[in-house]
Design brief:
Elements (H helix, E strand, L loop, with lengths): L1 E3 L1 H4 L9 H10 L3 E4 L2 H14 L5 H14 L4 E3 L6 H10 L4 H17 L4 E3 L14 E3 L6 E3 L6
Parallel strand pairs: 1-2, 1-4, 2-3, 4-6
Antiparallel strand pairs: 5-6
Length: about 150
């Protein structure tokens, strides 16, 4: 199963470095998981692009409509109390921001609940100690693999 954090999922809607990787994965995979936190993070990215003049109002509305149409098709991980011990452990071990720890904890929780390998795609963890200068790394003794696709380009 694949898990996209918001930095990967946003590339379904904005043409950026890594968009081709994300588009290829979403057409191949039956199920894409993400945290509910991704929704406001993605909206924030769209609004930033709008404020900076990179998106016009019509294009922005089209992207927002696509996101809202796609959202029910994703496997959404709710933010719940079971994530908190994982968040705490991750933040103690790695230099993660709060939101990033929720994303990673959500993928770890998904892996533990489904007992299947989860491949976590992100475009921002290369600077965190959890996968510094690595293309992928197993996290927290689990079957989850963190992949930072832009390092492959």
């Amino acid at each position: 199963m694949i898990y996209f954090d918001s930095s990967a999922l946003v590339k379904r809607y904005l043409k950026e470095k890594g968009t081709d990787v994300v588009q290829s994965l979403t057409t191949r995979e039956e199920l894409v998981a993400t945290s509910k936190l991704s929704y406001p993070e993605i909206l924030s990215a769209f609004m930033r692009k709008r404020r900076e003049g990179e998106l016009g109002e019509e294009k922005l509305q089209s992207i927002l409509d696509r996101l809202d149409a796609d959202w029910p098709e994703l496997f959404i991980i709710e933010i719940h109390d079971e994530l908190l011990p994982l968040v705490k452990s991750l933040i103690r071990k790695y230099p993660l921001k709060g939101a990033d720890s929720i994303q990673l904890a959500s993928a770890l929780w998904l892996e533990s609940m489904t007992k299947t390998e989860v491949v976590f795609y992100s475009f921002r963890y290369e600077s965190a100690g959890c996968c510094h200068e690595r293309k992928s790394k197993n996290i927290e003794s689990s079957r989850i693999t963190l992949v930072t696709p832009h390092l492959n380009e």
